[in-house]
Design brief:
By secondary structure, the chain is an alpha/beta fold. The chain has two domains: about 240 residues, Alpha-Beta Barrel (nicotinate phosphoribosyltransferase), CATH 3.20.140; about 160 residues, TIM Barrel (Alpha-Beta Barrel). It is about 35% helix and about 20% strand.
Length: about 450
């Protein structure tokens, strides 16, 4: 028996879902609901701790999934063998075999600043198909939005210094490292240390030296010299395998062409100052200083506020895990469905988990200073004078227009960040939150549905 990789077959992604979605799908089919047109929306219930805004990310991977959504014969065979589905009509398996995403997708473009509880994307499709998408859509949007939002805060803290994603080894799995590299670059990082992410995404990569190199030699100066022979055009060398300042002196005396030096441990403020002094005294003012080692936006802010002469930062664990806010309350809720009586809204009214009915649009309004002032969530049939954020992405299972390049999304994020109210860009834990309001029409529709008989609707 071979060891399973657990990488999905990207041509057959149907089973990349929770069993609850499959049981609902079987139930919908059994009771004649599978082909009813339905709309689901993905949103984030509330702003996570230490965040004043979020950066939408992950839409490109959602599209990749929807274009390849299908069940393989092996997956269907496995479902047939599950006792849970023993009484499901055989026609359900035949329907799964032919199932593809042929619905519509609306979404807020990646790189846009977003605020709960606005929907980030909306799916309209036959009920059974739309239900099966929930798990993949939530996990995809949540992970990249989480990392992009963390990365954006780090970009602000770095005040224009170069930032490199160095978190692949600390990510929650190899695929997470790839997605984090993409999200970080979108949010403004210079590039990544992840080789395959750099290749697949066509983004800059950081080739830095590691401590193991010096541990492989008896003489540290010789190690610097041999590394320089391998990379004669200049490299970034790490100084602190043994002693940072002694390492710098040995690097300088080795004759190695050095583009930058990296400090990965110790008192980063004091060491960076002394390293800068020694580099300048040696006539090497062009050599840049990179620091790394358990960095986050607060540590970067504090280093620069104290005057650390640092030119760039490598950020790993705190970035790829978004350590201070490692999850988002993403939900995927049914908001409307076609019935024998026409289009009907659906909502949830559980404590602290209220949702609003019907397909929605989000309008953004700017103030006199041209910065974002507030958003209003409306029914998609309403028209306001603000800027609509939800855009058509797919129609009948096909892309409406070609995908936006990652470079363009990166520019969009930069432009959007510049339009945020200044108070949202700081690291203070408590600030006046960005205002998001619900349209009066939506409020009335929710009240109307809630007033109807509990025999007709169930809000659980």
């Amino acid at each position: 028996m071979s060891a399973p990789s657990l990488y999905p077959n990207e041509q057959h992604l149907g089973l990349m879902t929770d069993m609850q979605a499959l049981t609902l799908a079987a139930g919908y089919y059994t009771h004649g609901l599978a082909d009813r047109k339905a709309t689901f929306e993905l949103s984030i219930r509330e702003m996570p701790p230490h965040r004043h805004y979020l950066v939408a990310a992950g839409l490109a991977q959602v599209i990749h999934y929807l274009l390849r959504f299908s069940f393989s014969p092996e997956q269907i065979r496995w479902l047939r063998q599950q006792p849970l589905f023993a009484k499901v009509p055989v026609g359900w398996y035949e329907k799964l075999d032919a199932l593809r995403f042929e619905g519509d997708l609306w979404a807020i473009p990646e790189g846009t600043m977003v605020f709960p509880p606005s929907p980030l994307l909306r799916v309209t499709a036959p009920l059974m198909a739309a239900q099966l998408l929930e798990t993949y859509l939530i996990s995809t949007i949540m992970m990249q939005t989480m990392v992009a939002s963390k990365a954006s805060r780090i970009v602000t803290a770095a005040q224009g210094r170069a930032l490199w994603d160095m978190g692949a080894r600390r990510a929650h799995g190899p695929q997470a490292g790839m997605l984090a590299a993409r999200a970080a670059y979108l949010a403004g990082f210079e590039g990544t240390s992840h080789a395959e992410a750099a290749r697949r995404l066509n983004i800059p990569t950081a080739g830095m030296q590691a401590h193991a190199w010096f541990m492989s030699f008896k003489d540290q100066k010789d190690a610097f010299r041999k590394f320089g022979e391998t990379f004669p055009e200049g490299v970034t060398v790490v100084l602190d395998t043994f002693d940072t300042l002694d390492g710098l002196n040995r690097a300088l005396s080795s004759g190695t062409a050095i583009q930058a030096v990296r400090i990965d441990s110790g008192h980063l403020l004091n060491l960076s100052r002394e390293v800068r002094r020694l580099l300048d005294a040696a006539g090497r003012p062009q050599v840049k200083i990179i620091v790394s080692g358990d960095l986050n936006e607060q540590r970067i802010h504090d280093l620069l506020a104290a005057g650390a002469p640092v030119d760039g930062f490598g950020v790993g664990t705190e970035l790829v895990t978004s350590l201070d806010a490692p999850s988002l309350g993403c939900v995927y809720k049914l908001v409307e469905i076609e019935t024998e009586f026409g289009l009907e809204g659906r909502l949830k009214n559980a404590p602290d988990k209220k949702s609003y009915p019907y397909a929605k649009q989000v309008y953004r309004f700017t103030g006199g200073d041209e910065r974002f002032e507030f958003d209003e969530i409306t029914r998609n049939t309403e028209t306001l004078y603000g800027d609509p954020l939800m855009m058509p992405i797919m129609k009948n299972g096909e892309l409406v227009e070609p995908l936006t390049s990652l470079a363009s999304l990166r520019t969009r994020c930069q432009e959007q960040r510049a339009l945020l109210p200044a108070r949202l860009l700081g690291l203070e834990e408590t600030v006046e939150p960005y205002r998001v309001r619900i349209s009066k029409h939506l409020e009335r529709e929710a009240e109307r549905l809630l007033s109807q008989s509990s025999d007709e609707f169930s809000f659980v």
